[in-house]
Amino acid sequence: WPRELPPLGDQELAGPNTQSLDQRLPELKAVFQHDFAANGFDTGRFALVRNMDGGVLTHQPQGLQVVRPGGDAYMATLIAPAIAVRGDFDISVSFEQFETQLTPGSHATAMLQLFMTGDATNESTVSRRHTISTADLSQQYIIAGVAERSGEDTRRIQLANSPGESPSGAFRIARRGDQISYLYSEGVKAPFRILAVKTGTTDDIEPRH
Fold first, then answer.
1. In angstroms, rounded to a whole number, what is the distance separating the alpha carbons of residues 94 and 37?
2. Distance CA 64, CA 188 (A)
3. Which of 42, 74, 106, 183 has the fewest CB atoms within 10 Å, i.e. is most exposed?
Protein backbone atom coordinates (compact mmCIF):
# COMPACT_ATOMS: atom_id res chain seq x y z
CA TRP A 1 0.00 0.00 0.00
CA PRO A 2 1.55 3.35 -0.97
CA ARG A 3 2.47 5.61 1.91
CA GLU A 4 1.50 8.69 -0.09
CA LEU A 5 -1.56 9.31 -2.20
CA PRO A 6 -0.91 10.18 -5.85
CA PRO A 7 -1.93 13.62 -7.11
CA LEU A 8 -5.69 14.14 -7.08
CA GLY A 9 -6.06 13.86 -10.84
CA ASP A 10 -4.12 10.56 -10.91
CA GLN A 11 -6.23 8.76 -8.31
CA GLU A 12 -8.29 5.81 -9.50
CA LEU A 13 -11.69 7.34 -8.77
CA ALA A 14 -10.79 10.85 -9.84
CA GLY A 15 -13.12 12.64 -12.23
CA PRO A 16 -11.97 14.86 -15.09
CA ASN A 17 -9.13 17.09 -13.89
CA THR A 18 -8.41 20.71 -14.69
CA GLN A 19 -4.92 20.21 -16.11
CA SER A 20 -5.78 21.06 -19.71
CA LEU A 21 -7.65 24.19 -18.61
CA ASP A 22 -4.90 25.32 -16.23
CA GLN A 23 -2.12 24.77 -18.77
CA ARG A 24 -3.67 27.37 -21.05
CA LEU A 25 -4.19 30.02 -18.37
CA PRO A 26 -0.93 31.85 -19.27
CA GLU A 27 -2.34 32.35 -22.80
CA LEU A 28 -5.17 34.49 -21.40
CA LYS A 29 -3.27 37.79 -21.29
CA ALA A 30 -6.03 40.19 -20.22
CA VAL A 31 -6.69 39.94 -16.48
CA PHE A 32 -9.40 41.53 -14.32
CA GLN A 33 -9.10 40.89 -10.59
CA HIS A 34 -10.84 42.51 -7.64
CA ASP A 35 -10.58 41.94 -3.88
CA PHE A 36 -13.73 43.19 -2.17
CA ALA A 37 -12.09 42.89 1.25
CA ALA A 38 -9.28 45.26 0.29
CA ASN A 39 -11.05 47.53 -2.19
CA GLY A 40 -14.75 47.44 -1.36
CA PHE A 41 -17.49 47.92 -3.93
CA ASP A 42 -15.86 50.06 -6.62
CA THR A 43 -18.64 51.75 -8.62
CA GLY A 44 -16.17 52.35 -11.43
CA ARG A 45 -15.63 48.61 -11.84
CA PHE A 46 -18.97 47.14 -10.76
CA ALA A 47 -22.65 47.87 -11.19
CA LEU A 48 -25.55 46.82 -9.00
CA VAL A 49 -27.77 45.87 -11.91
CA ARG A 50 -30.53 44.28 -9.86
CA ASN A 51 -31.36 44.66 -6.20
CA MET A 52 -34.99 43.90 -5.43
CA ASP A 53 -36.71 45.23 -2.32
CA GLY A 54 -34.73 44.85 0.88
CA GLY A 55 -31.29 43.80 -0.41
CA VAL A 56 -28.43 45.25 1.66
CA LEU A 57 -24.74 45.39 0.66
CA THR A 58 -22.06 46.34 3.19
CA HIS A 59 -18.28 46.35 3.13
CA GLN A 60 -16.87 44.04 5.81
CA PRO A 61 -13.23 43.20 6.68
CA GLN A 62 -13.76 39.78 5.06
CA GLY A 63 -15.27 41.21 1.87
CA LEU A 64 -18.62 42.33 0.49
CA GLN A 65 -21.57 41.13 2.56
CA VAL A 66 -24.90 40.66 0.78
CA VAL A 67 -28.06 40.24 2.85
CA ARG A 68 -30.90 39.17 0.58
CA PRO A 69 -34.37 38.91 2.18
CA GLY A 70 -36.80 36.69 0.31
CA GLY A 71 -40.46 37.09 -0.51
CA ASP A 72 -43.42 35.40 -2.15
CA ALA A 73 -41.87 35.92 -5.59
CA TYR A 74 -38.31 35.58 -6.95
CA MET A 75 -35.95 38.07 -5.28
CA ALA A 76 -32.37 38.74 -6.36
CA THR A 77 -29.32 40.93 -5.92
CA LEU A 78 -27.07 40.91 -8.99
CA ILE A 79 -23.58 42.41 -9.03
CA ALA A 80 -21.84 42.76 -12.40
CA PRO A 81 -18.32 43.86 -13.41
CA ALA A 82 -18.23 46.66 -15.97
CA ILE A 83 -16.21 44.71 -18.54
CA ALA A 84 -16.74 42.92 -21.84
CA VAL A 85 -15.26 39.44 -22.37
CA ARG A 86 -14.42 38.01 -25.79
CA GLY A 87 -12.86 34.75 -26.96
CA ASP A 88 -11.49 32.25 -24.45
CA PHE A 89 -11.95 33.14 -20.80
CA ASP A 90 -11.59 31.81 -17.26
CA ILE A 91 -13.86 33.47 -14.71
CA SER A 92 -14.02 32.62 -11.01
CA VAL A 93 -15.54 34.14 -7.89
CA SER A 94 -15.32 32.98 -4.27
CA PHE A 95 -17.77 33.26 -1.39
CA GLU A 96 -17.68 32.67 2.36
CA GLN A 97 -20.20 32.41 5.20
CA PHE A 98 -23.14 31.32 3.06
CA GLU A 99 -26.01 31.30 5.56
CA THR A 100 -29.72 30.79 4.98
CA GLN A 101 -32.97 31.04 6.89
CA LEU A 102 -35.68 29.32 4.86
CA THR A 103 -39.35 28.48 5.19
CA PRO A 104 -40.89 25.34 3.62
CA GLY A 105 -41.20 25.63 -0.14
CA SER A 106 -38.39 28.17 -0.56
CA HIS A 107 -34.73 28.22 -1.58
CA ALA A 108 -31.65 30.46 -1.44
CA THR A 109 -28.84 30.53 -3.99
CA ALA A 110 -25.41 32.07 -4.49
CA MET A 111 -24.16 31.83 -8.06
CA LEU A 112 -21.85 32.86 -10.85
CA GLN A 113 -24.01 33.71 -13.84
CA LEU A 114 -22.74 34.64 -17.32
CA PHE A 115 -24.92 36.20 -20.02
CA MET A 116 -23.79 35.89 -23.63
CA THR A 117 -25.06 38.17 -26.39
CA GLY A 118 -26.40 35.60 -28.88
CA ASP A 119 -29.79 33.95 -29.18
CA ALA A 120 -28.66 30.36 -28.55
CA THR A 121 -27.16 29.11 -25.27
CA ASN A 122 -26.61 32.53 -23.76
CA GLU A 123 -26.76 31.95 -20.01
CA SER A 124 -24.32 29.77 -18.06
CA THR A 125 -24.41 29.27 -14.28
CA VAL A 126 -22.71 27.49 -11.40
CA SER A 127 -24.60 27.81 -8.14
CA ARG A 128 -24.70 26.77 -4.49
CA ARG A 129 -28.31 26.19 -3.44
CA HIS A 130 -30.18 25.40 -0.25
CA THR A 131 -33.77 24.21 -0.62
CA ILE A 132 -36.51 23.44 1.89
CA SER A 133 -39.36 21.41 0.40
CA THR A 134 -43.00 21.88 1.38
CA ALA A 135 -42.55 18.70 3.43
CA ASP A 136 -39.72 20.48 5.33
CA LEU A 137 -36.96 18.39 3.69
CA SER A 138 -33.65 20.27 3.54
CA GLN A 139 -31.29 19.74 0.61
CA GLN A 140 -28.05 21.53 -0.26
CA TYR A 141 -26.29 21.03 -3.56
CA ILE A 142 -24.12 22.45 -6.35
CA ILE A 143 -25.69 22.96 -9.77
CA ALA A 144 -24.25 23.66 -13.21
CA GLY A 145 -26.71 24.70 -15.88
CA VAL A 146 -27.50 26.66 -19.02
CA ALA A 147 -30.48 28.54 -20.41
CA GLU A 148 -31.19 28.19 -24.12
CA ARG A 149 -33.18 31.07 -25.55
CA SER A 150 -34.92 31.26 -28.88
CA GLY A 151 -37.06 34.34 -29.35
CA GLU A 152 -39.34 34.59 -26.31
CA ASP A 153 -38.90 30.91 -25.37
CA THR A 154 -36.42 29.86 -22.68
CA ARG A 155 -35.39 26.29 -21.92
CA ARG A 156 -33.30 25.66 -18.79
CA ILE A 157 -31.04 22.60 -18.74
CA GLN A 158 -29.35 21.22 -15.64
CA LEU A 159 -25.92 19.83 -16.56
CA ALA A 160 -24.81 18.63 -13.10
CA ASN A 161 -26.20 18.35 -9.58
CA SER A 162 -24.16 17.13 -6.62
CA PRO A 163 -24.41 17.50 -2.82
CA GLY A 164 -22.58 20.46 -1.30
CA GLU A 165 -22.93 21.93 2.17
CA SER A 166 -19.75 23.97 2.68
CA PRO A 167 -20.42 27.60 3.72
CA SER A 168 -17.47 28.70 1.58
CA GLY A 169 -16.39 27.87 -1.93
CA ALA A 170 -15.65 29.20 -5.40
CA PHE A 171 -17.42 29.08 -8.75
CA ARG A 172 -15.55 28.94 -12.04
CA ILE A 173 -16.62 28.93 -15.69
CA ALA A 174 -13.98 28.52 -18.40
CA ARG A 175 -14.30 28.66 -22.19
CA ARG A 176 -11.80 27.23 -24.63
CA GLY A 177 -13.06 27.57 -28.18
CA ASP A 178 -16.70 26.45 -28.07
CA GLN A 179 -16.20 24.17 -25.04
CA ILE A 180 -17.50 25.62 -21.77
CA SER A 181 -16.42 23.99 -18.49
CA TYR A 182 -18.32 24.42 -15.24
CA LEU A 183 -16.26 24.02 -12.06
CA TYR A 184 -16.66 24.29 -8.30
CA SER A 185 -14.30 24.37 -5.33
CA GLU A 186 -15.60 23.14 -1.97
CA GLY A 187 -13.78 25.74 0.11
CA VAL A 188 -11.96 28.84 -1.07
CA LYS A 189 -8.53 27.17 -1.29
CA ALA A 190 -9.62 23.67 -2.30
CA PRO A 191 -8.86 22.44 -5.84
CA PHE A 192 -11.51 22.96 -8.49
CA ARG A 193 -13.41 19.98 -9.83
CA ILE A 194 -15.16 19.87 -13.17
CA LEU A 195 -18.93 19.51 -12.84
CA ALA A 196 -19.73 19.49 -16.55
CA VAL A 197 -18.42 20.40 -19.99
CA LYS A 198 -20.77 21.47 -22.78
CA THR A 199 -20.42 22.80 -26.30
CA GLY A 200 -21.68 26.36 -26.18
CA THR A 201 -21.71 29.71 -27.87
CA THR A 202 -18.62 31.74 -28.72
CA ASP A 203 -20.59 34.97 -28.34
CA ASP A 204 -19.21 37.83 -26.29
CA ILE A 205 -20.13 38.67 -22.72
CA GLU A 206 -21.19 42.29 -22.58
CA PRO A 207 -21.38 44.50 -19.46
CA ARG A 208 -24.73 44.47 -17.67
CA HIS A 209 -26.33 47.82 -16.86
1. 12
2. 15
3. 74
